[in-house]
Amino acid sequence: MKKFVIFALVSAMCVSLASCSGNDTTSSSSAESSAAGTESSAASDSSTASGEAKVGVYVSPSLSAESEEATFSTVYAAVMVDADGKIIACDIDEGQIEPTLTDGAVGEVDLRTKTEMGDDYGMVAAGASTMEWYQQVEAFENYVVGKTADEVRAIEMTDGKATDADLSAGCTIAVGGFIEAVASAAENATVSVGASDKLGMAITTEDSTDAEGAAYDSDFCVVTVDADGKVTSCQIDTVQGSLPIVDGAFDTESGSYATKKQLGDDYGMVASGATTMEWYQQAEAFENYVTGKTGEEVSAIELTDGKAADADLAAGCTISISSILSNTEKAIAAAK
Predict the structure, then answer these.
(1) Which residues does UniProt assign to the signal peptide (predicted)?
(2) Beta bridge partners of residue 324, listed in sequence order
(3) Which of 22, 146, 165, 252 has its CA 20 to 30 A from that of 140?
C-alpha cells in the first residue's frame, strides 16, 4: 500500500500565534505590525492584574495516509510563563481523527480530542496502562510547572518515555511530543497578561466530509481570563485538513493539513476576490474585539447568517464566526 506522510511542525507559526499576529511565516511585515497592536491591547487590559506573565501557544498538525485509512493528528499546547520564564500554567491536548474508507465511502469518526474522550480513549480497558491518557497528560502538565523552556527540553527520556521517577510515576506514555510542544510554546510566549489570570484552551472539530473526500476543520482557541471574568488575551486558529477520494481510494498525493494562520496570504481569500482582508487579519480583529469582555458578553455577540452584526467587529471581520465564537466561549469556560 502506498503511504504518504505530511508533517507540518510549525515552530515559526508558533511565534505568530503567541504574538496574536495571526500571520503566516511568509508575511513578516504584516506579522510585525499586527503583533504590536494586539500585544499592546492585551497588556493594557491586564495592567491592573497582580504581577505579569506571558502566554505562548503551539500547534503541530500532521497527516499520515494510505489508500483506505488516514490519521489527522494535531498536538496543541498553551502555557503561561512568569517574568523569569518559568511556567506557571500549562494545558496540552491532542486531536486524532482517523477516517477509513469502505467501498469508497468515508465512515464516521470520533471528533473529540483525547482529553475530551476521557475514559473512552480506552488505554486502561485495553490493558495498556493503569491510567488514562488525560490523567497522564495532567501529570506532565503539573510536572513542568515551575520549569523554564530549557529545563523542559532537558527532561530525560529512554525510548521516548520519561526516566525521572516523579514524572514517570504519573506519566508512562511517550513524552517527546509534549516536551517539544511545551518548550516551544514557552519560548515563544510574548502576549502580556496578569500572572493571576486563568488559562483556558478549547478545540472543536467539524466534519465536512462528502463523496469527494474527507475534510475536517478544527477551531482552536486559547484565552486568559482575569479575576473579574474578563478576557485578557485571545488567540485563535483553525486547523484545516482534507484528503480527496479518487477511484475509491484516498489520493495521498493531494492530502493537506495546515492551519489557516500558517498559510497566511496563501490562504487566498484576497486573491480570490472574496474579501480585502486575509483570514489571519480577520482573526486578529476578532481576538482584539473579545479582549476585555466577560464570558457573558462574548456569548452575547450577535450574528446574522453566522457573521458579526456589530459594526465595529464587522469592519475588521467579515468571515463567518459562528464556530469560532462557540469555541471561544468553550475556552473561556475552560479557563482555570
Answers:
(1) 1-18
(2) none
(3) 22
